[in-house]
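User: When convenient, might I ask for sequence and structure tokens for a protein?

AI:
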Amino acid sequence: MKKIALIILLFSFFNGLSQSLSEKEITKLNNLNLKTEGLNLNDVNIQKDLNEILNLERKRKTNKTIGIILTALSIATLTAAIIDVSGKNDLKQALGYTGIIVGAIEGGISIPLWKSSKKRKNERDKLIKKFE
């Protein structure tokens, strides 16, 4: 029984390493305005470039999503902190100043994520132009 499980595990591992594109990946490429109908999908270099396009798109979306979340969190933290600072309670003012610092740090972290997202988009677009 253990041997069968090991064999199944090895086959699933090798299946995940295949270079061929799945239908889902081809659909993603078509959504990026990259027409895959005329391409030789059996060519290793074309597959490598198409996989790189998909990888760059995934990284771009991840960075952009995290950047949006951190920006929204920064705005919320700064707003709450400013409201706390305007209060008359010393404890709330101290928490408000801390919130301003934390909000500024969150905003500062989100900026490189936005830039990285833009950089990945430009890299992806350069690769897409190779196929036009």
Q: What stands out?
A: The chain has one domain: 22-129.
